[in-house]
Specification:
The complex is a heterodimer. Helices cover about 0% and strands about 50% of the residues of chain A. Chain A is an all-beta fold. By secondary structure, chain B is mostly beta strands. In chain B, the strands form two sheets. In chain B, strands 2, 4, 5, 6, 9, 10 and 11 form a seven-stranded mixed β-sheet that branches. A four-stranded antiparallel β-sheet of chain B has the order 1-3-8-7, with no helix packed on it. Chain B starts with a strand and ends with a strand. Classes of the chains: A mainly beta, B mainly beta.
């Protein structure tokens, strides 16, 4: 069974930093692109970042470029999102999602809540 | 950036009836379009990819159609578990970017 489990969400002050993790199991992690997608309270879905299977292709939404860094450790079947210079508008549930062969997100984790507030 | 626009924002439907949801892209995305269902407090679930292919385990009452800039998700014979928010997503220019529509809430009439 494919499983993605996010962790690391917390309450953080504006300007602070946080590192999210996503633990994967039930599939061959090192052959899939993985994405981070977020959802602000009561709002829709927003793609944040993605990383290819060997970390050779990394992309970010303009809203987080220069502040967030995605990475992965295939030996540990894990995905990470380092978030710096956090803003109130980064408050959201952050999901990791596996990317299917042609670009859709076929499996999602349950999400982890990040709250940026003073 | 490709902008995805969904309509209507809210759709009120009686159980057993048909629901038709629309998604429009600001430029052609070919058939690189997915639909997701999200229930309160849950992660999104993939319903449709390639504009019309049902994901594994998705009931036949869910169907997708369209290509280019106009897409439709049809739910035939709505069941109680189908009342949720539905999002479309284009992945035409992945891995550079993905964009989602703002969602359509299907509620009980």
């Amino acid at each position: 069974e494919v499983q993605l489990v996010e962790s690391g969400g917390a309450l953080v002050k504006p300007g602070g930093s946080l590192r999210l993790s996503c633990a994967a199991s039930g599939f061959t992690f090192n052959i899939y692109t993985i994405s981070w997608v977020r959802q602000a309270p009561g709002k829709g879905l927003e793609w944040v970042s993605s990383i290819s299977s060997k970390s050779t292709s990394i992309n970010y939404a303009d809203s987080v470029k220069g502040r967030f860094t995605i990475s992965r450790d295939n030996a540990k079947n894990s995905l990470y999102l380092q978030m710096n210079s956090l803003r109130a508008e980064d408050t959201a549930v952050y999901y990791c999602a596996r990317v299917g062969s042609d670009g859709w997100n076929d499996y999602w984790g349950q999400g982890t809540l990040v709250t940026v507030s003073s | 950036e490709i902008v995805m626009t969904q309509s209507p924002a809210t759709l009120s439907v009686s159980p057993g009836e048909r629901a038709t949801l629309s998604c429009r892209a600001s430029q052609s995305v070919s058939n690189n379009l997915a639909w997701y269902q999200q229930k309160p407090g849950q992660a999104p679930r993939l319903l449709i990819y390639g504009a019309s292919t049902r994901a594994t385990g998705i009931p036949a009452r869910f169907s997708g159609s369209g290509s280019g800039t106009e897409f439709t998700l049809t739910i035939s014979g709505l069941q109680s578990e189908d009342f949720a928010i539905y999002y479309c997503q284009q992945y035409n220019n992945w891995p550079l970017a993905w964009t989602f529509g703002q969602g359509t809430k299907v509620e009980i009439k």
